[in-house]
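queue> pop job 88
queue> type: inverse folding (structure -> sequence)
queue> payload:
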């Protein structure tokens, strides 16, 4: 069975690395992007099962990613937003396919629980 693909998006490379390590350890295949615009380019060429993304980033926000994915046809990746600031409209994000909005610092027990539910593992 092929491994689930996870796209990790954060403008802080250290955070991408930490999340990637955790996801790799769980058996996921991971790729990282350092902003929303880079993530959108990756989404144009690669199918992902899940996106873990920061909300506020200088090179395209997590909301930009949500809006791009929302317009895709076919099976869409599940999206989990992670932010130190709760400045998104939760209801709107959920309507566009966001499965959870979590806060920083990252609680991997909670992140793993949400991922398992989102991917029905």
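queue> result:
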């Amino acid at each position: 069975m092929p491994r689930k693909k996870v796209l990790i998006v954060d403008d802080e490379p250290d955070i991408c690395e930490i999340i990637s390590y955790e996801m790799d350890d769980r058996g996921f295949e991971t790729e990282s992007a350092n902003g929303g615009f880079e993530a959108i380019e990756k989404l144009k060429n690669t199918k992902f099962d899940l996106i873990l993304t920061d909300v506020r980033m200088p090179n395209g926000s997590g909301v930009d990613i949500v809006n791009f994915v929302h317009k895709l046809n076919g099976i869409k990746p599940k999206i989990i937003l992670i932010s130190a600031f709760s400045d998104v409209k939760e209801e709107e994000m959920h309507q566009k396919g966001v499965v959870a909005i979590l806060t920083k610092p990252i609680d991997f027990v909670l992140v793993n629980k949400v991922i398992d539910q989102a991917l029905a593992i």
